[in-house]
Amino acid sequence: MTRLERITKQITKTKTIIAEHQDCLRELERQKTEIENADLIKKIRGFNLTNDEIMAILNKREKDDDNYHNSQISSLTTRFNEGGILEIEN
Prior knowledge:
Elements: H1 3-46, H2 51-74, E1 77-80, E2 86-89
Antiparallel strand pairs: 1-2
């Protein structure tokens, strides 16, 4: 077997190993997300709120976040500096 063939074989073997590890990593990340979601649901249920109360809290939070981000964006000033680079100032 030539040196090139050995290297090519090693590359193929390495790619196979990497693909297997990526599959394993994706599965572990899926399991982690599933556990995190279950923990969140358990905590939310612990507050003994109705679905309507939970949705009201989430909607208010979303509205507050939108108002915060909009106020931050509206207070920004943009200009191009001498080098032609866009600068954003608060």
